[in-house]
Design brief:
homodimer; 15 helices; globular; Farnesyl Diphosphate Synthase; 70% helix; 2 strands; two-stranded antiparallel sheet
Chain lengths: 297, 297
């Protein structure tokens, strides 16, 4: 399978954005301000849609068209976007910039941003519970539960709390890793796991896809830390060095830049190994893994 | 059917509280602070559990034990509690007191309160997607979608936004009613509608239960306005007169106290009429409707 990753990612993002545009309430319907804030956070900022594209690529690895898991893909992005809106709030990370633009509470106001986040989280489950004819309601329920589990206290929200509790004190590698596994890892893992559920993966395939997701999720976060440490704020679209200024523990800080790069590389090697039991239909997943290690933003 | 409403409500609340206690993560597991905040908001404050009890009573009206819809009942309460936590935040209604105790962000902090709300909203969908053997996954998915729809932009969150947008300007009755239909009405309506879905109600029964929910939901809100206007803060467990101080439009303000009371009474009469097609198994629903009009807090 001959895949150009740049084209693949661009095409995936376009499909996901088109579908998100359909799912989001119209910007001119009351309450306009809320719908505008949801659309601003979701569609205006040029997100890469890594989680949705991982779901589409997982479906393809299992021999299905990506469109089969489009509701899951959009639900993942709704949850990711809500988490960014709430994380940026003054009471949380207090970030004024997101993807090169004012964050949602700066472009609108705090109350609207809180509600836009709440609405997007809720919309994720409305999308994923949409009646479908192409798979069993039982599988849809399982995927929905996997998504809720990954997004909630046992996953992303729990990780965000752990992260806040770790602020302004020094933590060790195991604690840092535990934060990342929850805060960012759970949602990347469930992109693969949920798509596997909706595409009738065998237990062996499911296990491999889950471990692939775990490995690239952690590698992605290590690269994020590295880019914050050494990246260029103009390329990143947000202030860099913010972790250091906020006295946050990071991989490069705890391991050194070189060792953190090696660790990310090892994780990508593991992820690629997990793909051994798949045909070349899994090439997009393979390329995405390699892309994570090479990305500049 | 001879039902003592006080006993019925107390028994329902106890069953729901027991089950919520099982669903909530243990308070001594990391991140403890988040779990404690969730439990504080959910279990410590003596909520009446009106929405969950409506779901249980609806199941009984349809000839099923209330326990059949317990996951829906608990999901409803998770969403209701999250909405109170977020509504109380400084950027929203800025309330220091809730049910006679410090609100969640006062007892913990703003970041923890935001995350506890996010976690409870997510938990609602995790609970309702739990595998069950006693009903069809397809019905479970429909109920889940009804719940997400009622909780999101088309329902409660949209209503909260409309409410914020109406602050500090005078609005008329149609706009006030529109706010209430969304902000509080949608979740009360879906308590009955979701339970009807999970209990194989006929289309006629579903329509009656939905209209019952709509009528008592609006009556409940009118009574809330009336109690804020004329109630006793010691009995209410929160400051009264706050609507007036915040220059919020209310039913008593727009219609006068007597007319607002009459309007609530008319709605309860409508709700009782909707119960005509049910046997005495619907007596709890009938008593709850009458209770709403007579409540003092």
């Amino acid at each position: 399978m001959n895949v150009n990753l740049a084209h693949y990612l661009a095409a995936g993002k376009e499909q996901v954005d088109q579908q998100l545009d359909r799912y989001l309430p119209a910007a001119d319907r009351a309450p306009e301000r809320l719908h505008q804030a949801m659309r601003y956070a979701m569609l205006g900022g040029g997100g890469k849609r890594i989680r949705p594209i991982l779901a589409l690529a997982t479906a393809e690895a299992l021999g299905y068209p990506g469109s089969r898991v489009m509701p899951l893909a959009c639900a993942l992005e709704c949850i990711h976007t809500y988490s960014l809106i709430h994380d940026d709030l003054p009471a949380m990370d207090d970030d004024d910039l997101r993807r090169g633009r004012p964050s949602c509470h700066r472009a609108f106001d705090e109350a609207t941003a809180i509600l836009a986040g709440d609405a997007l989280l809720t919309l994720a489950f409305e999308i994923l519970s949409e009646p479908r004819t192409d798979f069993e309601p039982a599988a849809q329920l399982v995927a929905l539960r996997q998504l809720a589990n990954a997004a909630g206290v046992a996953g992303m929200v729990g990780g965000q709390m752990l992260d806040l509790l770790a602020e302004n004190r020094s933590i060790g590698l195991p604690e840092l890793q535990n934060i990342h596994i929850h805060k960012t890892g759970a949602m990347i893992r469930v992109a693969c796991l949920g798509a596997a559920t909706l595409c009738n993966a065998t237990p062996e395939q499911t296990r491999a896809l889950k471990r692939y997701g775990e490995a690239i999720g952690l590698a992605f976060q290590i690269m994020d830390d590295l880019l914050d440490e050494i990246g260029d704020s103009a390329v990143m679209g947000k202030a860099t060095g913010s972790d250091r200024r906020q006295a946050k523990s990071t991989y490069p800080q705890l391991m050194g830049v070189t060792q953190a790069q090696e660790k990310a590389q090892d994780l990508i090697t593991d992820a690629l190994q997990m793909m051994d039991c798949f045909s070349d239909q899994a090439d997009p997943l393979r390329l995405i893994a390699r892309f994570i290690i090479s990305r500049a933003c």
